[in-house]
Design brief:
932 residues; mainly beta; Methylamine Dehydrogenase, Chain H; six-stranded antiparallel beta sheet; 3 helices
Length: 932
């Protein structure tokens, strides 16, 4: 929590109270990354390089930070097969030597990432460096891949030698750890389809002894202590175990730890011996991530941080004692400089997960959905497994929130593709292999519909094998194939509850569908060497063949049409002369239109600009635009290029609610063009500082229930969120332009709830974000006076507020007086709440001044605010609830947005009882009195 600086004088305060918002920043570049930051697969810190951190997001080239995780760059432009790495390791002595592990093999850089070379092409199952002899490397091949089961290098990877055969029954190794004091003392976990093995070698892998496996029949995050002490996680999902005899016997060390049903990570600090554990609890519809520390070898544990979403992995900075990093599932990285007591969200430049699909909700203005999925698609067996996520924007792509979709039993599912129902807001359809799923709550919970025919799988080419009819409610189409090679098109008239085969063609397969949005009843289907058309809503079909000019052996990966009834086909075949065609006669004849720079470039999606005739092509090499129907093309990727390379673009979409707003799904995340110049308010988005900032809130309960906060605007610089009822506000925010004092905008937040929540504030023009989390169980308040720089770039390391500041509270009951004969009478200084039964008044004062009455502003039946200096800047929110059915009392909640001295007086006009709540200067805080 950032406390308001005491150095601010009264003159500065007076300027701030009357200041107006500065003009909005200049127009952003054409494309700007807007999607949520991605999860982290592996972390490693450089030896001797204080604050130098390396990370791998699933299936990405390694990222590097030189400032303790505050900002990230991608120096690995020359790394071979960049998309096939899932782990990173650093040399324990040389800060410039780094290794990347993955299915491509083992790559190494000796110059801090400027250049890379592949030093072993064996797919990596496990890799370890001997801390006391860094040139000694051990590499175990990935299960079922080609190569030596276990190899060793004694010259830093220049040469390798195969080690003798593994013990009988051991087919591969999935975990390796080398004793920090002895390069030949190696521990490993062996694997076979039927069992796991604990292995120990004292001669550098020349021979192996088989020890006992701890409970759980799996061991991960193996850590080596002195005198034969070993620590690890006894299964992919915990618990923590310890061995005092080199792995011959094991004991559980989980006192005070929760049962964990999600992947975990364990690290040991060599100097102090402290153990750090990242774990979590699966709450059905959400995961609660936690970090714990043990200072006594695992006998007792202390919780350091708790937030929604998976926390994995952990890393310690050996050059900065007490510096700790933990990866998040959705926001990059958390960093602590004091051994976990306080945390910051640090991740500027951290890559978002790959965005593979987009769906527009035509019933909710500005709402789009995106499928986010790591490219490895679950292939990594080391925890955590990459998991498909969904993201949603309600403001036309300016900001996104993401989550893991789950079925009705709470299990995560991997959806692709996803299609929005054209008739019902928040209704989505998605395919998981041979099963169709439906969500009626905006993609949070998915229920399986009646299954497709046996062995049917929706076509994966181009992801356009699932479509909804925009003219007829409940009509769906699915193109795919059966296990006997037959290709079919299915039609459902009841939202996927039952299916009828309407087209069966065998070879060539149908790989793309288009329900023409400009012509009711017209449906097109394309495949490899074939093209079909229906004019009666898909009930009957006619084949037009490949069509003159359309190359017969290419795959049709996408179909599109425009207002002039031109039909476009995107074809996929690497190295083909043409990949984009147009037909002016509904598919009878075709002509290539991929002229100039688009010639031969793979087109993955085509978007017809709804404002005019422009065509946008999303390709393997960025985005191109044509203003003349495809005769000429120019690159349109300003802001997309990273490290000199344009990204793979999988999907393009237009926001129908905002003219000119385009969304791109790419391998580097989600992009918008152009970004709105100001925040667009909605039910879930609160606009602050004259629209310069967009705020969103997400709450969660211990039982797994969660949801988005609903925005309620107070002024152009303040507002609130309600979670459960519009008559009961839970969180109040205020944004001040503090440029005259410290060149930043200031954000104040105050709770009227003890429910856990995460608040995300985005600067619309730049995309800079800050996230504030309250773990629940207490009332959190904060005053962040360095939230956003006025120049438009966020300060390094966005604050992650995880605890409430202390606040002095004096509460006393006045003697009872005669019962009031009338209800509260509202006045300029009096707020009437709870059906006008309670009268609330506030007085405030500055040093050396007398008390002044605050001005009341009613909001809803149970809630109102008070302002001291300007009606645009509320200083206190008050809520009174009738809690008598629960404990026989009324409940009073106060949420402060000011650190000056004030006193709140609450009077029950029925009984005459009065309470005074005194707030001293110098703090911000909330009060919850449930015994009025």
């Amino acid at each position: 929590m950032t406390r308001l600086s005491r150095k601010l004088n009264l003159v500065a305060w007076a300027v701030l109270w009357i200041a107006s918002a500065v003009p909005l920043a200049a127009q952003a570049p054409r494309w700007r990354a807007t999607g949520p930051r991605g999860g982290t697969g592996s972390l490693a810190t450089a030896a001797g390089g204080a604050g130098v951190v390396w990370a791998v997001a699933f299936g990405r080239a390694p990222l590097r930070s030189l400032d303790g995780g505050a900002s990230w760059t991608r120096p690995a432009v020359s790394i071979p097969y960049a998309q096939y790495y899932f782990a990173v390791a650093t040399d324990p002595v040389d800060p410039l030597t780094v290794y990347a592990e993955g299915f491509a093999g083992l790559a190494r850089t000796s110059d801090g990432g400027a250049t890379w070379s592949l030093i072993n092409s064996t797919p990596v199952g496990a890799f370890a460096i001997a801390p006391s002899a860094p040139a000694t490397l051990y590499l175990a091949r990935y299960y079922n891949s080609v190569g030596n089961p276990l190899s060793r290098s004694d010259d830093g990877g220049a040469t390798w030698r195969a080690l003798p055969a593994l013990p009988p029954g051991v087919e591969s190794i999935f975990d390796l750890a080398v004793d920090p004091a002895d390069p030949g003392n190696v521990y490993a976990q062996g694997f076979s389809p039927s069992r796991r093995f604990f292995l120990h070698s004292t001669d550098g892998g020349g021979s192996w002894l088989t020890g006992s496996m701890p409970p759980g029949d799996h061991l991960s995050s193996l850590q080596i202590g002195p005198q034969g002490a070993l620590y690890g996680l006894a299964s992919a999902f915990g618990p923590v175990v310890r061995s005092r005899d080199g792995g011959q016997t094991w004991e559980s060390i989980n006192a005070g730890l929760p049962y964990s049903s999600v992947p975990g990570s364990l690290v040991r600090e060599r100097t102090s011996g402290n153990l750090y554990l990242a774990t979590g609890v699966d709450q059905g519809s959400a995961t609660l991530g936690q970090v714990w520390r043990s200072a006594d070898g695992g006998t007792t544990w202390t919780k350091l941080v708790e937030r929604s979403g998976l926390l994995y992995p952990l890393a310690l900075d050996g050059a900065l004692p007490g510096r700790l990093y933990v990866g998040t599932e959705d926001a990059g990285l958390l960093a602590s400089a004091d051994a976990g007591q306080h945390w910051q969200l640090a991740g500027a430049g951290f890559l978002a997960p790959s965005a593979l699909d987009l769906a527009v909700d035509s019933q909710l203005a500005g709402t789009l959905y995106a499928v986010l999925e790591p490219p490895l698609d679950g292939a990594v067996l080391q925890p955590p497994l990459p998991r498909t996520q969904l993201a949603r924007t309600t403001d036309g792509g300016a900001t996104w929130t993401s989550w893991t979709p789950r079925n009705q039993d709470g299990a995560p599912i991997s959806l692709r593709p996803v299609v929005a129902d054209p008739f019902t807001a928040g209704s989505l359809y998605g395919s998981v292999g041979p099963v169709l799923f439906h969500s009626s709550d905006g993609g949070k919970i998915w229920r399986s519909s009646s299954p497709f025919p046996p062995f049917f799988v929706v076509s994966g080419v181009g992801l356009s094998g699932l479509a909804a009819d925009p003219f007829h409610a409940g009509v769906l189409f699915a193109a795919g194939f059966l296990d006997n090679g037959t290709s079919v098109v299915l039609r459902s008239a009841d939202g996927g509850q039952s299916w009828t085969k309407v087209l069966g063609v065998g070879e060539p397969w149908v790989t793309a569908l288009l329900v023409d949005p400009t012509s009711p009843g017209t449906v097109f289907a394309g495949g490899r060497g074939g093209f079909w058309r229906s004019l009666d809503g898909g009930l009957s079909w006619a084949s037009t063949g490949p069509g003159p000019g359309l190359i017969g052996q290419q795959w049709v990966v996408g179909l599109q049409t425009d207002a002039g009834h031109n039909l476009y086909a995107e074809l996929g075949l690497p190295g083909a002369e043409h990949t984009l065609y147009r037909s002016a006669d509904r598919g009878t004849t075709w002509s290539p239109i991929d002229a100039g720079p688009l010639a031969g470039v793979q087109v993955n999606d085509l978007l017809v600009d709804p404002r005019g005739t422009a065509l946008y092509a999303g390709t393997n090499n960025g985005i191109y635009v044509s203003q003349d129907g495809g005769a000429h093309w120019t690159a349109a990727g300003d802001g997309l290029t990273a490290g000199g390379f344009a990204p793979y673009v999988s999907r393009l979409a237009a926001d129908p609610a905002h003219a000119g707003a385009l969304i791109a799904a790419t391998e580097d995340g989600l992009f918008a063009s152009p970004l709105p110049s100001a925040c667009i308010p909605s039910d879930l988005v609160l606009c602050l500082a004259g629209g310069k900032f967009a705020a969103r809130a997400h709450w969660s309960l211990r039982n797994g229930t969660s949801g988005d906060g609903h925005a309620s605007t107070l002024t152009d610089r303040s507002g609130s969120f309600w979670f459960f009822s519009p008559g009961s506000l839970e969180l109040t925010l205020k944004m001040i332009d503090g440029q005259t004092v410290n060149h930043h905008f200031w954000l104040f937040g105050a709770d009227l709830t003890d429910v856990a929540y995460t608040l995300t504030v985005t600067e619309v023009a730049t995309g800079a974000q800050r996230t504030y989390s309250s773990p629940g169980g207490s009332f959190a308040n904060f005053a962040d006076t360095s939230a956003f720089e006025v120049a438009g770039t966020a300060s390094p390391g966005a604050a992650e507020v995880s605890s409430a500041a202390a606040i002095s509270l004096s509460s006393r009951s006045s003697p009872l007086v005669s019962a009031a004969t009338s209800a509260c009478v509202p006045a300029a200084d009096t707020l009437c709440l709870a059906g006008s039964r309670f009268a609330v008044q506030v007085t405030w004062s500055l040093p050396g001044t007398g008390a002044t009455s605050a001005v009341a502003t009613p909001l809803v039946q149970n809630t109102g605010t008070f302002w001291f200096f300007s009606p645009q800047l509320p200083e206190l929110t008050v809520k009174v609830l009738d809690g008598r059915p629960l404990n026989g009392h009324f409940w009073v909640f106060l949420a402060g947005l000011s650190d000056i001295n004030y006193t709140t007086t609450v009077t029950d006009t029925v009984t005459g009882a009065t309470k005074h709540y005194v707030h001293p200067a110098g703090t911000v805080g909330s009060i919850a009195d449930t015994s009025f």
